[in-house]
Amino acid sequence: KHSHVAGAVGAAHPPRFGDPPPKSPGMLLCVSAPKEVTKRREKMLFLVSRSLRAPQNLFLVSLAAADILVATLIIPFSLANELLGYWYFEKTWCEIYLALDVLFCTSSIVHLCAISLDRYWSVSRAIEYNAKRTPRRIKCSIFIVWTIAAIISLPPLVYKGEKKAAVGGRPQCKLNEEAWYVLSSSVGSFFAPCLIMILVYLRIYLIAKRRHRSHPPGGRPRDTLATGTGRVVLAHRPPALNPWRRKTQINREKRFTFVLAVVIGVFVLCWFPFFFLYSLGALCPQRCKVPDGVFQFFFWIGYCNSSLNPVIYTVFNQDFRKAFRRLLCRRRAPTPW
């Protein structure tokens, strides 16, 4: 257990945990938005809307839980550490905090990867996979997601690496900076899930595009069947959808493609700069070192992904939007004036 320093420069007493740190609008947004809005609203949404009780939406519940834990157990302490310039809390909590940081952030990223795989299987093997998509199987998948995140988060607790001297005599709380851990955690936490997401969503897009071409807007699409004698039989499918329903289906596919682009774009924009600089610093620590301010900026941009995930998976989901409106209308009581 280490002792706390006397205080910051120009301060007579060290800051206490009970004293709130300096506040800013961005700070309050990062801490309060996911914790207050998502935690209360999303739990109630699944009670209001029956359509949201589908098994696959359990992924969103678990993802929301990971993002809420980031907002409540990680961001406040990261914020205090950033503002004070040193680790004010206990050494034991520093080790737990680092492990939880990796656990929750990795879990959030792996959840996105699991959601992409779930969507791919539901598109490519619609009948077979949807019949097997039971709540029990989804819960097993969620358990695997958290297990992967837990395995990646164990090294900070088991092996702490070489100890570095405290800056200015003040205790610091940093992850193991050895190259093997930085590279392995970066691959497991970001690069591998990111590659899987991009390939899977690209495959989904190609499947949707192929289906769109195989169903022309007018007429009756035909299937060709080659027989053993070399003859070709033309089989007519049932009449095509009427123009209005067909247009609705095309618009739905376009919106779905747009949502996929938003998910991938936000995910990569938030996390890629941090993990790229994090890995680059391990590969060439002397020549490739970036300013601390730049690194910290992208570090906090990565945290913002946890705040944006609930927005993406609710605003761009029609069932969630309907449930939000129903929830707000229920809670809006008539005023006497």
UniProtKB/TrEMBL annotation:
SUPFAM superfamilies: Family A G protein-coupled receptor-like. Residues 1-15 have a biased composition (Low complexity). PROSITE patterns: G_PROTEIN_RECEP_F1_1, G_PROTEIN_RECEP_F1_2. Keywords: Cell membrane, Disulfide bond, G-protein coupled receptor, Membrane, Receptor, Transducer, Transmembrane, Transmembrane helix. Residues 1-22 are annotated as: Disordered. It is a multi-pass membrane protein. It is found in: Cell membrane. InterPro entries: ADR_fam (IPR002233), ADRA2B_rcpt (IPR000207), GPCR_Rhodpsn (IPR000276), GPCR_Rhodpsn_7TM (IPR017452). GO terms for biological process: platelet activation; regulation of smooth muscle contraction; regulation of vasoconstriction. SMART domains: 7TM_GPCR_Srsx. Its main location: membrane. GO terms for cellular component: plasma membrane. This is Alpha-2B adrenergic receptor. It comes from Buteo japonicus.
